[in-house]
Amino acid sequence: MRRPRRVSGLSVVIALIGLAGAALLLYPSAAAWFTQLQQSQQIDEYTDSIGALSAEHRVEEIQRAEEYNQALIGGTSIFAAGERKPQSEVDAAAHADYADLLHADDLGLMARLKIPAINVDLPIYHGTSDDVLEHGVGHLEGTALPVGGESTHAVLTGHRGLATSELFTHLDLLTMGDTFTIEVFGEVLTYRIIDTRIVAPDDTETLRPQRGNDLVTLVTCTPLGINSHRILVTGERILPTPVKDVSDAGRHPDVPGFPWWAVTFGGVVILLGVYVTVAGRRPTVPVEDRDTPGFATRPGDT
Q: Is residue 40 part of a domain?
């Protein structure tokens, strides 16, 4: 009678080590995928919330934001070396109504940012707190709200190099002529990149409004993990807004894509399972060899 097949202890240990290694390598991809899924859900909720508002309400919110922008006087920002986020030098108490402007939900979501060239589709929130920048893009208080307008300059900031989210990780890949789009309370604003630069933390001159220009600057830190400098990507408004951007407004985000990390992990599990199974097989001895002198059978061998 044939004995039950035994599993090799060594093969199990090797398989567990391989499984742990695969999980470690795929964790950033998996975490980023789930974060993008959550961000896409928030964008869908934002789109539904704005769509439920009357046209009059949406226009009123935009007008209030424009009045806020006109009241700003030279708002700039301070970037401390080694820090991953900017801080506004504008007294928050002087703009106590800031959080109520473009108020789409209780999470502080105000708009949506799309950057096709690097496959970015992110929610924009009020402020640049740690919690905000862990989940999306932050609007730097003290700079113009992202509703456009002559002589306005909005600043949007995001992290890069996080293990759990891509956010602005690939902002350095953008080049002159690339575009990005902001959807805010039913309005669509498209900006063409006119300037990209790396600056020291205290170099904020380019973040100030420029007379007659409608600008938005995207900000993140560099180099990864060191954060000694800042990447500034500035776009100028395109008027009229491209028809394609208007027609694509409100569409479900294209990110995250298919979870190839899950397919890879599943493949690793299958391969390791096959390895453990094969390693647990006992070598078979041809029948003719059993008849040779000196061959001894064990109890249970047939």
A: yes
Whether 221 is catalytic: yes
Count of the separate structural domains present in the chain? 1
List of E strands, the chain = 77-78, 87-88, 109-115, 120-126, 137-139, 152-157, 179-184, 187-199, 214-222, 229-237
Q: What angle separates helix 260-279 from helix 9-51, to the nearest 10 degrees?
A: 160
Q: Which of 139, 221, 229, 252 is catalytic?
A: 221
The answer to whether residue 104 is domain-embedded is yes
| Residue located via tokens 């009229």 | 240
Q: pLDDT digit string (tens) for 190-235?
A: 999 999 999 998 888 888 899 999 999 999 999 988 889 999 999 9
Is residue 153 assigned to a domain? yes
Residue 277's H or E segment, with its range, is helix 260-279
SS3 158: coil
Nearest Cα to Cα of residue 34 among 191, 245, 262 = 262
Q: Is 185:192 a contact under the CB 8 Å cutoff?
A: no
Residue 103 annotated among the catalytic residues of the structure: no
Q: 95, 153, 159, 170: which one is catalytic?
A: 159
Q: How many CB atoms lie within 10 A of CB 268?
A: 18
pLDDT in tens, 118-142: 999 999 999 999 899 988 999 998 8
